[in-house]
Amino acid sequence: MGGSDGKSRLVPPLPPFPPIPPIFPRMTRAAPAPTLLDLTPDAAAEALSAWAAERKLPAYRVRQLLPRLWQRPVGSWQEATELPAPLRAELDRDFPLPRLAQETVQLSADGTRKYLWKLHDGELIESVLIPSGARRTLCISSQAGCALGCVFCATGRMGFRRNLGAFEIAGQIRELVLADPADKPTNVVFMGMGEPLLNWPAIDTTLTILNRPEGFGIGARHITVSTVGIIPGMDALAARPEQFRLAISLHAPSSARRRDLMPIEKKYPLEDVLRAAGAFRKRITFEYVLIAGKNDTEADADELVGLARRMGAMVNLLPLHPGGAPGLTPTAPLAIRDFADRLRARGVEAVVRRSRGLDISAACGQLRVETERKKRAVSR
Ligand code: SAH
Ligand code: SF4
Q1: Residues 46, 54, 126, 153: which is the catalytic one?
Q2: What is the mean pLDDT of residues 190-215?
């Protein structure tokens, strides 16, 4: 295992902690105007019913419109050919359906697909589709950039740009379904760019859109919110009646070690985060990126066992994607196996996540960083 070399334990001084955006933000920076696609299915049905009533349209018309938002989505109302042409024109005028522009899509040799989407104000966000047998997991972004500056993360290094609206988050799924309904994800994880629980109002609505039968109809147990431990957001998520899954980005087994990797530890200390996680009825997951000499010793594994057993958590071990942090080294594959075996031998369920799509920079924030680097090189 890494970490035997005393020098590699030396951690560079932490960058100054950036201001954290509030969990209930006022959307000031270039947030798009809310549209039908920013509403929950119930609220969208209400808006459409009121509009139809003004026009004295028969009730069956509203029943025709709602499925075109998420269930059998259309790119614009013009495509809803079951509707009379004048009605389609009126809908396009009164309820334009926004889109995400596909900037690039990269296909990895292992079938992983990485999308870079351009938003109305030019911001770029990423989603990654990871097929595995009958399962298609889509990893989605919740913010453009991230304020939290974890030292191993490409998105963290980019800084915070802005929160995404509900349409921009759920739209990452909608665009896939529009291109090919067979690509509809079976599972969704909030593990793309950004910290979802610092954008709670939009995440709250998005979870409803993903889960409701009139939305995408994805079961709550197939939707995972990943967080570094934003406690007010965890409390809000735990208060929802559905059993969405929670993943905590742990990355170190003690508060002192975590501080070196994740500045947020100062605001929300590990013990408080674990207490808040106790409110979740479903089994939680610890995400743990293995970094040579930082968090991968036998002692680290043993401390992690203590936390996982206490919380009844399973552990996802992730090989460090080297693109996220030039100064850090991934733990060697054999040492990762030993680390996982040590957890398992002590009764903790541990999975080593394959680093999918390594050839297409498929880790948090890297495609955007790479695309911007190329653009700068071209404009020089
Ligand atoms: N902000 C949330 C969700 C997005 S990050 C969170 O941190 O949980 C999603 C996952 O990507 C996190 O578990 C994070 O540890 C992981 N990640 C970030 N940079 C990585 C890298 N360089 N290599 C491997 N995983 C990385
Ligand atoms: Fe933000 Fe998550 Fe990256 Fe940390 S790992 S900087 S919280 S996106």
Answers
A1: 126
A2: 97
